[in-house]
Design brief:
By secondary structure, the protein is α+β, with helices and mostly antiparallel strands. It contains eight helices and ten strands. The protein is about 35% helix and about 20% strand. α1 runs parallel beside α2, α2 packs across α3 and α5 packs antiparallel against α6.
Length: about 300
């Protein structure tokens, strides 16, 4: 028996940053994301003598440290117990994009593992059935943002799991790779530190207000307003990092240089991409299809992963 699945990454425009005091990756504020179908994690499950993780060949090299491996296997054990999956399995996984550098590889990895475990449970007990929303809630226990990767193209997350958004808008994605190596402060560590920032008070209210405004702006094609909301939101998150105790940060000098260039595009043309950053140095862009020709000139000289072909 061989189960092979994949799941996409996602980029939050309204950020999940900060967890409630309860366990299980429950967020302190609502978030919304766009699903990145071209950036995927792949998981293969096969019977084995004991549960183990190994890198999946044929994709970018990946190496999980002891902490990451334990977290991945513990999530699989949780699903095995809850979904009554007998036996032991090898879990081979890899991404087709760089890991641990602010591209949400944790989200796609745990979403793929959750989907793989569900397919495995179904192969053993065909009568076993869960909705996508239920799988999302289980996936959240392994990685909070993974619950949004179960829906496309837009997802929002409040409380225990994500749900699809009624937003009929397809965008193209690009990410400017400023730093491709692993982060020195993980996203999990960031979540634990940001409540110490004096700026954390009011974060839930700010995020909720921005999400309502952003949804309205996107539905009504108010692109500059959407750009300003996304811009304010990622700076809000990075300000929490810089003012936590102890403080830390992901911005590089090149990050600031790229951000300045992108803001100049809006200033000079009155149009441009939606811009955001995750917990990392890299910069994500979301563009309307009619912007593709111009976008290549905006990105000249930058190291870019993108969802369209020149």
């Amino acid at each position: 028996m061989r189960i092979e699945v994949s799941a996409p990454s996602n980029i939050a425009l309204i950020k999940y940053m900060g967890k409630s005091l309860a366990s299980g990756n429950l967020p302190t504020n609502a978030s919304m994301s766009y699903t990145l179908e071209h950036l995927r994690s792949h998981v293969v499950l096969e019977p084995a003598q004991h549960d183990e993780w190994k890198p999946l060949k044929g994709y970018l090299p990946i190496s999980l440290g002891e902490t990451g491996r334990t977290k991945f296997l513990n999530h699989f054990a949780r699903l095995k117990s809850a979904w009554e999956i007998p036996g032991c399995y090898s879990i081979a996984s890899a991404n087709d994009f760089p890991s641990d550098c602010g591209l949400a590889s944790s989200a796609s990895s745990f979403a793929a593992l959750s989907l793989g475990a569900y397919e495995l449970a179904r192969s053993i007990r065909p009568e076993f059935e869960l909705s996508r929303a239920e799988i999302s809630r289980w996936s959240r226990l392994g990685s909070g943002s993974s619950c949004r990767s179960l829906f496309s193209p837009w997802a929002q997350w409040r409380g225990e799991g994500a749900e699809p958004m009624e937003l009929d808008l397809r965008l193209e994605h690009a990410v400017v790779i400023v730093e491709g190596s692993a982060k020195t402060v993980s996203s999990s560590q960031a979540h634990s530190r940001v409540p110490s920032s004096l700026l954390f008070e009011g974060r839930e209210v700010r995020a909720e207000a921005r999400m309502l405004r952003l949804c309205s702006a996107l539905k009504e094609s108010r692109w500059y307003e959407a750009f300003e909301i996304c811009w304010a939101e990622f700076w809000d998150m990075h300000s929490l990092f810089e003012t936590s105790e102890p403080s830390f940060g992901y911005m590089h000098p090149e990050s600031l240089s790229v951000l300045h260039k992108l803001r100049q595009v809006w200033k000079e043309l009155g149009d441009g991409p939606l811009v955001t950053m995750d917990a990392g140095a890299n910069i994500h862009l979301l563009l309307r299809p009619e912007q593709m020709a111009a976008a290549d000139s905006w990105l000249t000289g930058l190291r870019v992963l993108k969802s369209w072909k020149s």
